[in-house]
Fold:
Amino acid sequence: MTLDSNWFSEAFNDGGSAFSMKLGPGKKLREVQSPYQKIEIYDTETFGKLMVIDGCIMLTTRDNFIYHEMMSHPVMFTHPNPERVLIIGGGDCGTLREVLKHPQVQTATQVDIDEQVTRMSEQFFPELCESNNDKRAELRFDDGIEWVRNAADGYYDIIIVDSTDPVGPGEVLFTKEFFNNCKRILGAGGLFVQQSESPLYHSHSIIKSMQQNLRGAGFADTQTLLFPQCVYPSGWWSCTMACKNGKIPAPRNQKSFATQYYNYEVHQASKVLPEFMKNALA
Ligand code: SAM
Structure:
């Protein structure tokens, strides 16, 4: 079946695969070339709105809940008392909204390099931005690697890196310098989590090197969690958590708010690795 102009496709060349979505009557709704990246918004037939950055699918109305819940709730429920949270990237504000559901949070600072991502999300994904005016929320527009360089020792309880892939502006967020500073600015028992790409495509590369570099930066323990994400390459995604000192604790089973994907059992199951990943990460 050859796809015509009624479809949006993202080819993942390294994996030799592509993912396509049938466009709705609106087709392309907006395109902005910011100083950092090209941001496009499409109307799709069955997934609602679609955000694309530099040709890569970022999120859709229909299924972003899986990613945003798994990037926020596992790390938040693993920390005993997450009061000060830093989000690097996350400009669509979906992760910020989930973080602010936790009653312990006193401040949630989101640092995205590109203000245009947030402005486009406010217009086309307002449901993701509904907590932006929460008095605990602080939205800053800066390079994440600069922010962590300048942040104070031991200030944060949790750092969530909701970045693009390790290319373009996102590349610096996968470096040892970045991890070293993240460890420095976390307090005792502080937790770090970063989106760590596809288990199928990246277990031997990005995921393995992220775990190695986090331990090289002095993090005491690492843990990769798996979850489905059909719009991303291979339809299978991950995030990798790290603890500043000691073993990553067991999560608190204390969810007091509504979610669509995350629950305690899903969290526990997401930590179980298939054999090929155990071997790749050994
Ligand atoms: N779910 C997406 C994924 O897994 O690819 C990520 C979503 S979010 C839109 C990615 C964000 O990372 C973008 O808003 C982008 O502007 C931001 N970003 C990229 N490089 C950055 C940097 N060096 N500092 C801060 N934010 C950065």
